[in-house]
Structures are given as C-alpha cells and as structure tokens.
Automatic annotation (TrEMBL):
Record's keyword annotation contains Chaperone: yes
Protein name per UniProt: Molecular chaperone TorD family protein
PANTHER family, per the entry: CHAPERONE PROTEIN YCDY, DIMETHYL SULFOXIDE REDUCTASE CHAPERONE-RELATED
Pfam (any one): Nitrate_red_del
Sequence ranges of Basic residues compositional bias: 9-20
Organism: Paenibacillus spiritus
Keyword tags: Chaperone
Renumbered residue ranges of the record's region Disordered: 1-20
UniProt KW Chaperone keyword: yes
Length: 252
C-alpha cells in the first residue's frame, strides 16, 4: 500500500501547493549520487511514520497500513537501530495485527500519562527549558515555509510529532513541488537549519527518556531509531546539497 489518499487524509497540515516540476525521477536523479537514492526514497515516509505514532493513539488501520508499506524498508536496513523497528512493523502475520494494535494503543495511553518521561512531555520548550511562548518561534518558522498545521487535538507547535511532520512536508515540497534546483535547495536548507537549531538539540534527550520509560518494541524501536536517524539525515542532506550545487553549477 502506498503513501496515498488514506494516509494523506489524516495529515494535519494546510499549506500552499505548487505545480510539480521537479520530481525524484527527473531533476534530482540528474545530480544525486547513487548512495543517496535509498535515503531519498524512505526519509519522507519515515518522518511521517514518526508524526503518526508519536502524535496520536494508534489505530488498527494505522498498524495495518504501515505493516504493508515497504518504502522505508531499505532505509531501516541501513541503520543499526532500524532493524529493530523493521522487525516490529513488518515481520507479522495479518492475524497478529489486532493484538499488536491493542497492546500499543494501551502503551500510548500509558506514555501520554507520564508527564516526566512520556509522550506528554515530548515538547522542545520543556526539554530545553524555554518559556511557553517559545512555541511562537516554531509557528513563525512554519509560517515562513507556507505551512499552517490543522491540529487534531491540543498539540503544541513544539511537540515532537509536529516538528517531525514539518520535516516530512518539507521533504515532499523539496522533491515534488520545486520549480527548480534553486527552490529545492531552499527547502533543503530549511531542513538542515531546523535539524541543527531544533530537533538535534532536544530530540536525543526525548529519545533517551522514551527508551527508559517503555518496554514496548514499537516505541523503544522508534526512540532508538530516531536518535540514530536525525544526525544521519543531516549528514545526507549536506551531501545532497553539495551534489545539487555541483550539478546546478555544471548546467550554467
């Protein structure tokens, strides 16, 4: 099952759409090294997976849909902690899914009740010791990128799920809604900056707290993988930016 209408309908964002001109099958492939292909194919979906599982109570349909989605499989295999999450999501019989859903939904409820270490405390302002109006900084960053989140509940703009969905949206815009290499680079640079100035400054601490707070294979797998993936993602963004800049210069 692809990343199609059923999943897109659950997205919380409202943002300006532009006519697709650059896609992963034309302009980027002209300048992207082969080593980046696996990363590019999976990173947007991986960020969306995090936005869903860390931002809402799992549903049986959500578990089932992700258990059939193989697009992030190669990316998971390339990361040490990814194999743990892969085995949790993908090596299941269909008959096992209701039991997995019930267990993980109960665990989500438990984790959201833990103010000190659970999903309820998954906010950048709390883990960085910032004031409550710090959310205005995040909402300003989103607005600069033309993105306004339509919240499903009481999520704050600095909640981990919102920040990770922001990265998912930027990836989609970069790959499918860019007018040129220049506009793709603008989206890419926004992602680099957001990782450097926000996610990498607090998400590892959140991951450590979540790992210590749960025995769930799903949520422990999510925490361990996120801690490994974020610095890797920044490294790959920098590599791809260099390739895009070199390719753009060669066309001049």
């Amino acid at each position: 099952m692809g990343y199609g209408s059923s999943r897109a309908s659950r997205n919380r964002r409202v943002h300006t759409r532009r006519k697709p001109i650059m896609t992963s099958r034309n302009a980027p492939s002209l300048v992207v090294p082969d080593a980046c292909e696996r990363w590019l194919e999976g990173r947007g979906s991986l960020y969306q997976l995090y936005a869903e599982f860390l931002g809402r109570r799992p549903k049986l349909s959500m578990i089932a849909e992700w258990s059939l989605d193989r697009r992030i499989g190669a990316l998971l295999d390339g990361l040490d902690s990814g194999r743990e999450l892969r085995s949790c999501l993908y090596t299941r019989n269909a008959g096992d899914l209701p039991g997995i859903w019930e267990r993980e939904a109960q665990e989500y409820d438990r984790l959201t009740s833990l103010r000190a270490a659970g999903l309820a405390a998954a906010r950048e302002s709390e883990l960085r010791g910032e004031k409550e109006d710090f959310c205005n900084v995040l909402s300003g960053i989103y607005a600069e990128s033309g993105i306004v989140f339509k919240k499903c509940g009481a999520e704050a703009d600095d909640h981990i799920a919102i920040e990770l969905e922001f990265m998912s949206i930027l990836h989609e815009e970069m790959m499918f809604n860019s007018f040129s290499v220049r506009s793709a680079l603008e989206r890419l640079e926004t992602q680099e900056k957001f990782l450097e100035e926000h996610l990498l400054l607090w998400a590892p601490g959140f991951c450590a707290k979540l790992t210590a707070a749960t025995e769930s294979p799903l949520y422990r797998g999510l925490a361990r993988l996120l801690e490994e993936f974020l610095p890797y993602d920044l490294e790959m963004l920098r590599s791809w930016r260099a390739a895009l800049e070199a390719g753009s210069a060669a066309l001049v």
